[in-house]
Specification:
By secondary structure, the protein is α+β, with helices and mostly antiparallel strands. It is built from 12 helices and 18 strands. It folds into 3 domains: 89 residues, Uridine Diphospho-n-acetylenolpyruvylglucosamine Reductase, domain 2; 114 residues, Uridine Diphospho-n-acetylenolpyruvylglucosamine Reductase, domain 3; 148 residues, Vanillyl-alcohol Oxidase, Chain A, domain 3, CATH 3.40.462. Strands 15-12-14-13-17-18-16 form a 7-stranded antiparallel beta sheet, covered by helices on one side. The protein is globular and about 70 Å long. The termini are far apart. The structure holds flavin-adenine dinucleotide. Flavin-adenine dinucleotide binds next to strand 3, helix 5, strand 10 and helix 11. The site of flavin-adenine dinucleotide (FAD) has 29 residues, from strand 3, helix 5, strand 10 and helix 11.
Length: 382
């Protein structure tokens, strides 16, 4: 029997409102097949979109019994939620919701909810949590894999926020994962959560906006642009800034040729968390260099990634390569700028490539429990 007819059998194990897409020429199928990157993106035999937890469990049980491979997709921002026509995708988009419990300071995240949605719902209740740099990134995918956040120093990583979860195991059992019922699984899903089953729900911690140190839940977000010829001065000023944990600065220093002019530049995309009046003081070493562009303003925490829509867009051949570093080394950073220049001059279509150095002047907050996330000592990323 062909895989197509076998997947058709799924209709007998799920509710009538579960969508099963099998025609790869259908516009709806093509829409749900889109991913953040087209690298290695495959076309599955089917995309199954359940609306109920019981259906998710039935689908997993059926796939295990039928020996048909599948992958789970939440936000679709990785290179891994794709499978070829020998398998199918369980897409959690239609099983998505956020419920905030303001009193308990928790949020229950179901299915494929994306970061912007969670940030908005929490902010309505005067709360925030550890979220990353992309509005369209799935919160579950982010938190299960560790999740480096813009509030690392206040909240810890995304995986540190997981209080409990519900998981469909490889045997098709639906498990409640708490520190009492499944301590080992809870340890594992906090950082290595993609490998232990299909997570239908996570309950995460939330924090009052007042912890951001501004009155209205805002943080300072700004940008400084320099010509590449000034890289040495900028790197030296950044070294001072990154090593000064008196101010909570963080962000990205990027070697890039941004559109529309494509002038090779050093762009510092900067954040400051704390008393708004001190942001300028914190970035004095950069203002002192008189950048080509220097802008910044207080932005509500839920809107801090709004300027990055282009980076979050689906499609095209994109890839992040990331390594953690112990410190910022100006000389090595200058060497990587030379590599970037060489790359772009030898391969002109690499013009969209950027080399970034991400820093946080303050260490990541460590949780009071052990988990599979082992990168709490890393606060610099290249
Ligand atoms: C624009 C952009 C910005 C980013 N910014 C950050 C950042 O600031 N910090 C950071 O740490 N990371 C960041 N990332 C990386 C991102 O966190 C990971 O790629 C994450 O895995 C994406 O999750 P997703 O749900 O969107 O992706 P998906 O492709 O849907 O899923 C990712 C992986 O998790 C599995 N999975 C999905 N849902 C479940 C589930 N319910 N149960 C079990 N497994 C599941 C999938 O099979 C796949 O292997 C960013 C990525 C992009 C594209």
């Amino acid at each position: 029997m062909s895989i197509q007819s076998r997947v058709s059998e799924l209709r007998f194990v799920v509710s009538a409102d579960c969508t099963i897409l099998q025609d790869s020429t259908d516009p709806e199928f093509r829409e749900y097949c889109k991913r953040w990157t087209d690298i290695d993106r495959k076309i599955p035999a089917a995309i199954v979109l359940p609306r109920r937890e019981k259906d998710i469990q039935n689908i997993v049980q059926w796939a295990v019994e039928s020996s048909i491979p599948f992958v789970t997709k939440s936000g679709g921002c990785s290179e891994w939620s794709t499978i070829g026509d020998d398998g199918f995708i369980i897409d959690l988009t239609l099983y998505s919701s956020v419920e905030v419990n303001a009193e308990a300071r928790t949020a229950t995240i179901k299915g494929g909810v994306v970061q912007k949605e969670v940030a908005l719902r929490l902010a309505e209740q005067g709360l925030f949590t550890a979220l990353g740099n992309g509005n369209v990134v799935g919160v579950t995918g982010f938190a299960l894999g560790g999740g480096s956040s813009i509030t690392n120093s206040i909240t810890g990583f995304g995986s540190d926020q997981i209080i409990s979860a519900r998981l469909v195991s490889a045997k098709g059992e639906l498990l409640d994962i708490t520190k009492v019922s499944q301590p080992d699984l809870l340890w594992a899903i906090r950082g290595a959560g993609h490998f232990f089953g299909l997570i239908t729900e996570v309950v995460i911690k939330a924090y009052p906006l007042s912890l951001l140190g501004s009155e209205n839940g805002t943080i300072w977000v700004g940008a400084f642009v320099f010509p590449l010829s000034r890289a040495e001065e900028v790197a030296n000023a950044m070294k001072i800034l990154m090593d000064d944990d008196h101010y909570a600065t963080s962000g990205l220093m990027m070697v890039m040729a941004p559109p529309p002019t494509r002038t090779p530049s050093l762009v510092v995309s900067a954040r400051y968390i704390g008393e708004p009046a001190k942001a300028k003081e914190a970035y004095a070493p950069l203002y002192g260099l008189k950048p080509l562009v220097a802008n910044g303003s207080q932005v509500p925490i839920q809107n801090t990634s709004d300027g990055r829509e282009a980076i979050g867009a689906k499609g095209d051949f994109k890839h992040f390569g990331i390594v953690g570093l112990r410190r910022f080394d100006s000389a090595r950073f200058l060497q990587s700028i030379e590599k970037w220049k060489e790359l772009v001059s030898e391969c002109p279509d690499a013009i969209n490539t950027a080399f970034n150095f991400q820093w946080d002047s303050r260490p990541v907050k460590k949780p009071d429990f052990e988990s599979a996330m082992c990168l709490h000592d890393t606060r610099y990323w290249q």
